From TrEMBL:
One of its GO terms (biological process) is polysaccharide biosynthetic process. The lineage of its organism: Bacteria, Pseudomonadati, Campylobacterota, Epsilonproteobacteria, Campylobacterales. This is Polysaccharide biosynthesis protein, GtrA family. Pfam families: GtrA_DPMS_TM (PF04138). Keywords: Membrane, Transmembrane, Transmembrane helix.
Amino acid sequence: MLKKQIINFILVGIINTIFGYSIYALFIFFGFSYIVAVLFATILGILFNFKTISRYVFKSNAKNLIFKFIVVYFVLFITNILLIKFFKLFNIDEYFAGFLAIIPVAILSFLLNKFFVYKK
């Protein structure tokens, strides 16, 4: 069961990541700060990601979990900002810093969703 969840999370995560990173990169391209870019990518991604992760990874239709999901995304938002800020200390540009943050944030996302939101 865990192996299948991880595989489904990776597959769904690829789509969610393309969606979120595209929004992030678009905001950076138009001159917004990385904080604003991450904020909008997070806000726009919450409902899309909630639907895909609920349905395809954790096989849940419970709408009441959205509040816990939002809490998780707040934690992911802060983590993402801190990681990008850390990478920028090494003169890594905002595009690549955002890209580097994807894997650790994705791992944290899976763990928080599995054990806090869906508890499966």
